[in-house]
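Page 37, continued from 36.
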């Protein structure tokens, strides 16, 4: 169908740390992996094991802790080699090489994980899927698109928009994440309250297992022929195999959309309204509720001192208008004041902007973090209160908002901005923040991750949260990857 072949864009900036760049380019002793030259021949030279910038680039993702490593010239998770497959056959050759040599493999989509999910914990080979970026098949009638895993989210969305369709999957990282990465990390998007997360949008997968065998979903709207095995790979972070195709639902672009903002007197009033909306069977495409600390940022108004809810409905005009009217009535009944559409329209125009966090992380000693968790309606206010109280001494600003709603509960984002004396102290503060946040969530029975996955950040806490079924995950891992070659050191797995 379509192909977006292009040269690899190297995001590594040697100005960030000239001394480290000089050390690497001047030549340091590197591990030459066994059989690497033969693999390079099979892949037409698409293996890099001597270019320091590529190895270094694949040693950092968008986890703020990794940003601290970069600023300090530390590279604790750099691969020994990087390869760029262009087909499923290339992936099979890589897996065969791994099987023969025992070398671990770590998948890489766009490197935008914020938890260290794509960083190698044991060296070996990083498999960069950026050249597997084609649209393979598209059906307007059946509303699905089949793509390779390395296709970038914004380019796929634009391609569909040109044809009158949309993914309705819009993570903030849309322009820096891939279809394969969404599956690997259990991603969700800003409109999930209506359209669902990746688990709802995924129709099919093709995955190549560590032994080279291919798993391919039978593509139907629904099937009752046994367990839905593609679910095993959602959120697996590449620990069970390499994804080579992703089939996603698509939707005709909505004919009508309404947006509005509402000012609330308290967090409790807002969570009550959100629960009422979802449990009434309403499905607005956008619900974001900001507490008093984050509302000034959302409103771009430093004088704002109330909680604020952003609301949006879309679809057939009559339905969208009726749904919005009922949601608005629920807000007003709870004591909210309507603020009009302009605050939400402004947010929609900048909703993929990371500049506040990036500017903070780029300052010497500056640090920033986002931690997303989830719980039932009956407990989410307690989790919010406890996290804010526990984390407030650890940063200059601690903000939060609720989004991604369900009948049973909601996700909760906590965003932290701070300034430390130097980058080493900033790194330690980030690690302390993670430890404190995870402990609070485990004590309250909340899930420690809603949609960013686990990676390195949450790895040591997974077995505690999943104490009732982690043994089954370990059995699956041992059966599928007995040598523990696929992204080892993730999901709390010890095989």
């Amino acid at each position: 169908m379509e192909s977006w072949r292009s040269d690899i864009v190297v995001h590594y900036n040697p100005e960030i740390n000239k001394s480290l760049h000089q050390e690497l380019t001047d030549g340091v002793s590197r591990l030459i992996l066994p059989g690497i030259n033969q693999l390079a021949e099979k892949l037409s030279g698409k293996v890099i094991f001597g270019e320091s910038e590529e190895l270094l680039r694949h040693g950092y993702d968008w986890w703020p802790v990794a940003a601290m490593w970069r600023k300090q010239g530390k590279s604790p998770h750099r691969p020994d080699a990087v390869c760029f497959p262009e087909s499923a056959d290339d992936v099979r050759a890589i897996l065969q090489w791994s099987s023969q040599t025992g070398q671990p493999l770590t998948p890489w989509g766009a490197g935008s994980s914020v938890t260290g999910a794509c960083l190698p914990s044991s060296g070996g080979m990083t498999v960069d899927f950026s050249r597997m970026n084609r649209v393979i098949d598209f059906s307007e009638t059946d509303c699905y698109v089949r793509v390779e895993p390395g296709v970038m989210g914004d380019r796929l969305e634009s391609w569909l928009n040109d044809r009158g369709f949309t993914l309705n999957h819009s993570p903030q990282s849309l322009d820096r994440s891939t279809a394969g990465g969404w599956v690997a990390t259990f991603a969700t998007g800003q409109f999930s309250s209506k359209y669902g997360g990746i688990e709802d949008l995924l129709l099919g997968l093709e995955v190549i297992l560590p032994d080279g065998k291919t798993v391919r979903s039978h593509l139907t709207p629904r099937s009752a022929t046994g367990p839905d095995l593609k679910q095993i790979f959602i959120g697996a972070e590449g620990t069970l195999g390499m994804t080579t195709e992703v089939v996603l639902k698509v939707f005709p672009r909505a004919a009508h959309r309404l947006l509005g903002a509402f000012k609330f007197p308290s967090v409790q009033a807002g969570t009550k309204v959100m629960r009422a909306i979802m449990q009434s069977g309403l499905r607005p495409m956008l619900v974001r509720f900001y507490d008093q600390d984050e509302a000034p940022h959302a409103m771009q108004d430093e004088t704002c001192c109330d909680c604020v809810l952003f609301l949006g409905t879309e679809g057939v005009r009559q339905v969208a208008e009726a749904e919005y009217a009922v949601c608005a009535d629920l807000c007003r009944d709870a004591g909210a004041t309507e603020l009009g559409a302009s605050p939400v329209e402004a947010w929609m125009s900048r909703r993929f902007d990371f500049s506040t966090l990036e500017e903070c992380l780029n300052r010497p000693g500056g640090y920033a973090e986002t931690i997303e968790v989830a719980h039932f309606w009956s407990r989410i206010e307690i989790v919010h209160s406890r996290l804010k109280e526990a984390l407030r001494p650890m940063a200059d600003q601690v903000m939060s908002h609720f989004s991604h709603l369900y009948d049973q509960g909601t996700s909760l984002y906590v965003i932290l901005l701070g300034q430390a004396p130097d980058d080493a102290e900033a790194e330690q503060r980030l690690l302390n923040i993670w430890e404190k946040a995870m402990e609070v969530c485990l004590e309250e029975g909340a899930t420690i991750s809603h949609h960013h996955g686990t990676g390195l950040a949450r790895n040591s806490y997974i077995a505690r949260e999943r104490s009732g079924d982690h043994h089954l995950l370990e059995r699956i891992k041992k059966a599928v990857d007995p040598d523990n070659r696929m992204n080892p050191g993730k999901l709390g797995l010890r095989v």
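DSSP finds 18 helices and 18 strands in the chain. Flag for discussion at group meeting. Confidence is low (pLDDT under 50) at residues 1-30.
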